[in-house]
């Protein structure tokens, strides 16, 4: 019952993504094959009669049948022949590959954390991780932050996803709580689950992320620059920094379990590149950005004014945060199909639900409007800039950077002469966590504000994005930073090569 439940939830999530514009091949040609491989690697199905690699192939969305890649993970050597047998019953109403049942597994294994972790069993959070892996494999233009935002807005079923399960599945007892999800998991947790799934599935090298892929930092950073109303002239500087940091290489952007096991966080990488570029051009030390060219009033009307941009974004950010808080407050987190471990708990939950429904009806009468969730149209952008009605403000995309850059021997160079950064020495990953809470009081307020702006855009914690910024800075200053130590709360300054002042 448990495997069938997760299989139907995954199918519903994939169908929702296809309706939102994801390639139809994503569902049956990629995600379905990953699900089958997961069932085999965890010994839950396809064990006595394993699926051969010649029968099922993963195909790239932009490739034909001749370029299909054999899925060599399906083999008899990787499974236990004494494990459970898969059910091969195919529904007459649905001829899709998703109609293959996977056979039941004792729900006790899912409830015991030690057994669940040792066997790599599925959970609600892991369904999002599997979706993310399938999207990256398909090279779809959806990052992990995009996926989590679609889940949070209700476009992809996750919260109360069990309500779409067939009524024939009697969700009762402790096993029913496996499908309960009361909040959207954070970005970092889903990313860790995705990396652990790569090891469980023993996936081969992912399809390469080329410069034509939307997940590439060059194109992804352009999307974020557009969303934050930054000038288009900033994008070449981001690409130059990306080349200096060595982040344009396909091998660094493609996940390979043997040579590059870490799953790239494409959204955070693009955001970190923009932040470092703005530090390079504007300073962001609470002095340079306001006293230099970026802080002077724009008399000509064509030069980018950082102060005007800050005021415009602050107003738009405040409105967007208020809209998000209102939608969250009006969202109904409970459904009519309650999940309870026993009869006593179910009685208590039904009583609480009746009280909550009565209170909700009272508020509806007082406010004269329904208390249901406000449906938000899916969009890749948080803000809207231009002269249209309902826009967040005028567009600044065509502004120039003449106030912060100059020509030096026919090469554009920044007017800002120094670059600051915290200590760049690495910590031990297992014994040390993020130091953002420790260094945040010492960081310039303009940098912290920009960090929080991108955190709202991506839906991540500031500490995670801060560590990604440090990763980019280590790659840029790798040769000079190896021998440098110093306190983490003391900011270091570097001379920018080629600067004119």
Can you walk through the features of this model?
The longest helix is centred in the middle third of the chain and has 25 residues, at 306-330. The protein has helices spanning 2-19, 25-41, 107-111, 113-119, 124-138, 144-152, 187-201, 217-227, 234-244, 250-253, 266-282, 288-291, 306-330, 343-367, 436-439, 445-458, 462-476, 478-481; strands spanning 57-58, 69-70, 405-408, 411-414, 418-421, 492-495. The chain has 18 helices and six strands. The chain has 501 residues and is mainly alpha-helical. The chain has a two-stranded antiparallel ribbon with strand order 1-2. Strands 3-4 form a two-stranded antiparallel ribbon. The protein has a two-stranded antiparallel ribbon with strand order 5-6.
Total count of helical runs of at least 4 residues: 18
Shape: globular
Output the structural class.
mainly alpha
Write down the overall mean pLDDT. Answer: 78
Could you give the order of the helices and strands?
HHEEHHHHHHHHHHHHEEEHHHHE
Strand content: under 5%
* Largest β sheet strand count, sense and barrel closure: 2 strands, antiparallel
Number of strands: 6
Query: Could you list the spans in which at least 5 consecutive residues all have pLDDT below 50?
Result: 50-106, 480-485
Topology readout:
Layout: H1 2-19, H2 25-41, E1 57-58, E2 69-70, H3 107-111, H4 113-119, H5 124-138, H6 144-152, H7 187-201, H8 217-227, H9 234-244, H10 250-253, H11 266-282, H12 288-291, H13 306-330, H14 343-367, E3 405-408, E4 411-414, E5 418-421, H15 436-439, H16 445-458, H17 462-476, H18 478-481, E6 492-495
Antiparallel strand pairs: 1-2, 3-4, 5-6
